Amino acid sequence: MAPEEYDCIVIGAGIQGSFTAYHLAKHKKSTLLLEQFALPHTRGSSHGQSRIIRKSYNEDVYIHMMEESYELWSLLEREAGVALHRHTGLLVMGPENGKDFQCIKGSVEKNKIPVVELQRHEFSQRIPNVNLTEGDAAFVENTAGILYADRAIRAAQMIFQQHGGVIKDGQKVLQIEPGSMVTVSTGSGVYRAKSLVITAGPWANTLLKHVGLQLPLKVVKINVCYWKEKVPGSYSLKNHFPCFIQLQPKEAEYDIYGIPSNEYPGLMKVCYHMGSETDPNERDKQMDKSDVDIVSRYISRCFPGLEPEPAVVESCLYTVTPDHHFVLDHHPTFNNIVIGAGFSGHGFKFGPIVGKMLSELSMGQKPSYDLSLFSTGRFHTHSRPNL
Q1: In this structure, are residues 338 and 211 in contact, taking their beta carbons and an 8 Å threshold?
Q2: Does domain 90-142+219-317 bear CATH number 3.30.420.40?
Q3: What is the pLDDT of residues 274-289, one digit of tens each?
Q4: Which of 24, 176, 264, 315 is exposed most, by the fewest CB atoms within 10 A?
Q5: Do 4-47+150-217+322-374 and 90-142+219-317 show the same overall fold?
Q6: How far is CA 354 from its chain centroid?
Q7: Are 207 and 200 a contacting pair, CB within 8 Å?
Q8: Residue 299 half-sphere exposure, CB side, CA atoms within 13 Å?
Q9: Radius of gyration for the alpha carbons in the chain, expressed in angstroms and rounded
Q10: 3-state secondary structure the chain
Q11: Is residue 355 within 8 Å of 23, Cβ to Cβ?
């Protein structure tokens, strides 16, 4: 049989790939979205019920991207007729004189993001059931909240299909042949397109081998933990408890974050923002629980209303770059192959705007934002991870 032909093929139907396909289809490009697993699935990085959405970042480019991303999330809500976001606010805590806290605080103030600074003497009244670490300061970003992750992916894929897009799941890519028409072979078919976008998450380097490129991407398994409230509702959305980020906790090198109890009644999601390196195909053999122990110690010290042993432990994969910034770029040799990778555990909320920029690169347009921070030609500096 002759290969099916499209304007563009997108490999990987997580949030980045689904939004890339969504934007391409809305630009009337015939688009195929390929996924190796049967949809929906829990083997990658985009599944689960909740993610934090916020603008509190060190870098102006992320803040500006998030401003448009909020607009695009709202647009998808209207198109799909389903709620994808809930406002909660975001509590940011960290060493008052620490570089990370000062940089984020300075950045949100410069960009006029609405925040409320919490003085230590009023903290316990404003944020009950949380012990602020000695020497830490805190503020609340008012515009932040929760994204409903699984619901969001379904919505983006639904609108993509309404615009004529084609999804083929259960199709593992076996070969990619570059050329003026890129050929993609799976176990079930052969497909050709004028351009290709690779958004394969933890499997990015597996696919990039086919086109002679390897990026410094590390895949880590994250233990996603839910902790039982001693008094039901103490940390719940109904009681207006915010999401939070703890910068530079005493227990460990990386940040800790949390989302109020919602998806599992009476259980609050609190996780360490790093995990143990793994092969994405062998993740279930990675049994390291050191991240769970870190969060348990933190909860014992700072969240007295939670049981310090997790009630539910699920898992997720991060694909981490050395500097914890994304990869959004053309292949250095094949200009009609575009790469979206290395979202380093903080990319979900950027899905709509990342998809827009990857689609722009695929169509040969100038991207909406300066992508120099995200080029494949960097990887010479290291910085703290973002959430």
Answers
A1: no
A2: no
A3: 999 999 999 888 889 9
A4: 264
A5: no
A6: 11
A7: yes
A8: 26
A9: 21
A10: CCCEEEEEEEECCCHHHHHHHHHHHHCCCCEEEECCCCCCCCCCCCCCCEEEECCCCCCHHHHHHHHHHHHHHHHHHHHHCCCCEEECCEEEEEECCCHHHHHHHHHHHHCCCCEEEECHHHHHHHCCCCCCCCCEEEEEECCCEEEEHHHHHHHHHHHHHHCCCEEECCCCEEEEECCCCEEEEECCCEEEEEEEEECCHHHHHHHHHHHCCCCCCEEEEEEEEEEEECCCCCCECCCCCCEEEECCCCCCCCCEEEECECCCCCEEEEEECCCEECCHHHHHHCCCCHHHHHHHHHHHHHCCCEEEEEEEEEEEEEEECCCCCCEEEECCCCCCEEEEECCCCCCHHHHHHHHHHHHHHHCCCCCCCCCHHHCCCCCCCCCCCCC
A11: yes
> Domain segments of the chain: what residues?
4-47+150-217+322-374, 90-142+219-317
Hunting for tokens 């909020």 — which residue is that? 70
Percent of the chain whose predicted confidence (pLDDT) is above 70: 98
CB 73 within 8 A of CB 226: no
Q: Are 317 and 224 in contact (CB under 8 A)?
A: no
Nearest Cα neighbor of 282 from 220, 213, 347, 225 is 220
Q: What is the identity of the amino acid at 74?
A: S
Q: Among candidates 143, 40, 35, 36, which has minimal Cα distance to 86?
A: 143
Write the CB contacts of 273 (distance below 8 Å, at least 6 apart in sequence). 254, 255, 256, 257, 345, 385, 387
pLDDT reported for residue 384:
47
Q: Which of 120, 130, 145, 126 is nearest to 56 (CA)?
A: 145
Is residue 9 within 8 Å of residue 197, measured between CB atoms?
A: yes
pLDDT in tens, 320-346: 999 999 999 999 999 999 999 999 999
